[in-house]
């Protein structure tokens, strides 16, 4: 029972931290979001006795991580074309996703995404929450935590990405693959090849 209560408290904390990241003006957005994710990942690792088992590296992890990041980028490219064709508000919502890029230089954003934000999200959502609640519930929570963006397309995007990373984690049973996938996808879509 105490473990369940701790998990619920951490999920509530995740929603509060994402509110802090997306709805306040304290510091810089990228710093807020990175610190929020890092805090969740740190607590998750502390609460996971077999934490090192999550990071078992195998030769194929890099290849699968890279391939899945490319696949996800392709899915988002196609999704953008469909959204622009059928949703009148799509262009504005896509632009709003990239509006915060001006708050920090692109190199710093890329470094935060690759080394801190992407890995931290995977450690918390897949390595901690999904191990306890399973793929469907974790995917739903990962999408819903983005409610504070007030952006329907971003909620859907988080659900799609979360489903792919969750499935990949369930299949591979290690975090290295999904960390590589998430980190590369983040840098690609937000810094190198934005879908503007």
Core attributes:
196 residues, mainly alpha, globular
Question: Explain this structure to me?
Answer:
With 196 residues, the chain is mainly alpha-helical. It has one domain. It is built from 8 helices and no strands. Helix 5 packs antiparallel against helix 6. The radius of gyration is 16 Å and the shape is globular. The mean pLDDT is 95.
Quick recap:
This protein has helices at 2-23, 29-46, 60-86, 90-98, 106-133, 135-144, 152-172, 175-192. By secondary structure, the protein is mainly α. Helix 3 packs antiparallel against helix 7 (152-172), helix 3 (60-86) packs across helix 8 (175-192) and helix 7 runs antiparallel to helix 8 (175-192).
N- to C-terminal separation?
Answer: 46 Å
What is the number of beta strands?
Answer: 0
Largest sheet: none
Q: Give unreliable regions as ranges.
A: none
Average pLDDT level: 95
Strand content: under 5%
Give the SSE order as H and E letters.
HHHHHHHH
How many individual domains? Answer: 1
Going by helix content, strand content and strand pairing, the class is mainly alpha
Helical residues, percent = over 70%
Helix tally equals 8
How would you summarize the topology of this molecule?
Layout: H1 2-23, H2 29-46, H3 60-86, H4 90-98, H5 106-133, H6 135-144, H7 152-172, H8 175-192
Helix pairs in contact: 1-2, 2-5, 3-7, 3-8, 5-6, 5-8, 6-7, 7-8
């Amino acid at each position: 029972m105490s473990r369940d209560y701790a998990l619920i408290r951490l999920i509530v904390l995740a929603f509060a931290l994402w509110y802090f990241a997306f709805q306040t003006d304290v510091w810089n957005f990228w710093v807020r979001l990175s610190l929020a994710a890092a805090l969740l990942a740190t607590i998750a690792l502390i609460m996971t006795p077999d934490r090192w088992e999550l990071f078992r590296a195998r030769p194929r992890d890099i290849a699968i991580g890279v391939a899945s990041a490319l696949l996800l980028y392709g899915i988002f490219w196609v999704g953008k074309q469909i959204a622009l064709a059928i949703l009148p508000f799509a262009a504005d919502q896509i632009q709003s996703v990239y509006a915060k890029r001006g708050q920090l230089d692109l190199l710093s954003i890329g470094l935060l995404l690759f080394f801190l934000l992407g890995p931290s999200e995977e450690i918390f959502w897949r390595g901690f929450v999904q191990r306890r609640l399973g793929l469907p519930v974790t995917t739903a929570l990962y999408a819903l935590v983005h409610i504070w963006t007030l952006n329907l397309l971003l909620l859907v995007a988080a659900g799609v990405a979360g489903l792919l990373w969750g499935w990949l984690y369930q299949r591979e049973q290690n975090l290295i693959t999904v960390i590589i996938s998430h980190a590369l996808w983040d840098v690609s879509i937000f810094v190198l090849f934005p879908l503007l």
